[in-house]
């Protein structure tokens, strides 16, 4: 099914390229409006994304390695679509403006210095010449210069920077065992639910994600609205609209909070209780909690005063309970004190670089 959708996407891409190319080379009497050019360019980008991803969802190319929709990737794709539409529409507007000779005329050249009077009768006053712009067809005389305001470049830069930073942080944390993510298997369907744009891996709504999504939609709405206002002009536009420093600042704050939130990692596993709380060497102890993992992984361990409990002393390991026997010696290798003396050690569960809160256990 994925290959069929991809094939349809490639066919759609080829058809749109041919149709749009023919329109440029052989313009009709009534050319397409700038908005039509913008929408067709957007449709061309969508068809290309369908061909590349094999999914009809326009954000499918924003899926992360875990098979879920990635906020940083989806935001980059979204802004690419928005700016691409505005650029194509304004480019078409300026090209048609030049082609029809309706662009605003440049100011007249300064008048020449007056010459001394002669006996010849004064000439009739010259009529101002009508200045018209060259009239090429769309795309026939090279590129029409379209400027990109710094605010638009900053918005594109914010999305790309957050994408790179978020990916780097996540991969580093995965390598260090600080977090664990589901790895998408070959053939596994991606979860393209929009909720992953505002929901973290633990299933809870993340306020930094929510803020980024809201300001992205607000900035995009203002940008598209300004684009429509600019397209209503009759003169040469030559630039995309400015988003505004306030929205750019709010977007930057949201992006910084989102990336910064990825740096703050808390252990997902929890230890609720331990039983018994006291025992001599060889005593069977159960550590009850959550999110230990279905089986013990190479990066997970049961710790006693920071030292791993030997695998031979761990009887069983499940997501909610770890059963072990008290070792014959203390973590440092010394013998346990004889009764009635006792010592207390701290039991924790380590998952990669993160540890749960300690729980005390007394021997003997």
Protein described:
This protein is an alpha+beta fold and 364 residues long. 40% of the residues lie in helices and 12% in strands. The chain is elongated, with a radius of gyration of 33 Å.
> Strand content of the residues, in percent?
5-15%
Question: Helix content range of the residues, please?
Answer: 25-40%
Radius of gyration over C-alpha positions, nearest whole angstrom: 33 Å
Main beta sheet:
5 strands, antiparallel
SSE series: HHHHHHEEEEEEEEE
Question: Tally of extended strands?
Answer: 9
Would you kindly provide a brief summary of this structure?
The chain is α+β, with helices and mostly antiparallel strands.
Key attributes of the depicted protein:
five-stranded antiparallel β-sheet; 6 helices
Secondary-structure blueprint of this entry?
Elements (H helix, E strand, L loop, with lengths): L1 H24 L8 H20 L17 H30 L49 H26 L31 H25 L13 H19 L6 E6 L8 E7 L9 E5 L2 E2 L5 E4 L3 E5 L17 E9 L2 E2 L3 E5 L1
Helix pairs in contact: 1-2, 2-3, 3-4, 3-5, 4-6, 5-6
């Amino acid at each position: 099914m994925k290959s069929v959708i991809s094939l349809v996407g490639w066919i759609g891409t080829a058809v749109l390229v041919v149709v749009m190319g023919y329109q440029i080379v052989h313009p009709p009497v009534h050319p397409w409006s700038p908005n039509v050019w913008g929408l067709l360019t957007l449709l061309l980008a969508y068809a290309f994304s369908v061909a590349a991803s094999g999914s009809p969802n326009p954000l499918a190319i924003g899926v992360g390695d875990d098979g879920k929709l990635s906020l940083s990737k989806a935001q980059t794709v979204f802004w690419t679509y928005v700016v691409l539409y505005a650029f194509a529409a304004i480019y078409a507007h300026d090209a048609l403006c030049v082609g029809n000779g309706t662009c605003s005329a440049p100011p007249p050249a300064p008048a020449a210095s007056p010459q001394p009077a002669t006996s010849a009768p004064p000439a009739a006053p010259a009529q101002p010449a009508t200045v018209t712009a060259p009239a090429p067809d769309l795309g026939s005389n090279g590129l029409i210069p379209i400027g990109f305001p710094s605010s638009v470049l900053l918005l594109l830069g914010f999305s790309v920077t957050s994408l790179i930073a978020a990916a780097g942080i996540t991969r580093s944390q995965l390598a260090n065992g600080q977090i664990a993510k589901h790895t998408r298997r070959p053939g596994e369907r991606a979860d393209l639910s929009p909720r992953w744009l505002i929901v973290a891996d633990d299933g809870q709504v993340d306020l930094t994600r929510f803020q980024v999504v809201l300001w992205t939609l607000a900035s995009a709405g203002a940008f598209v609205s300004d684009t429509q206002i600019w397209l209503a002009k009759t003169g040469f536009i030559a630039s995309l609209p400015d988003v505004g420093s306030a929205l750019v600042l709010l977007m930057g704050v949201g992006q910084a909070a989102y990336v910064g939130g990825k740096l703050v990692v808390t252990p997902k596993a929890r230890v609720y209780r331990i039983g018994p709380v006291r025992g001599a060497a060889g005593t069977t102890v159960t550590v009850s909690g959550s999110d230990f993992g279905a089986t013990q992984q190479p990066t997970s361990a049961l710790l006693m005063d920071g030292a791993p409990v030997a695998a031979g002393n761990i009887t069983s390991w499940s997501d909610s309970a770890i059963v072990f026997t008290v070792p014959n010696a203390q973590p440092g290798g010394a013998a346990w004190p004889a009764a009635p003396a006792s010592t207390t050690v701290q039991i924790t569960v380590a998952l990669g670089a993160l540890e749960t809160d300690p729980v005390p256990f007394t021997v003997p």
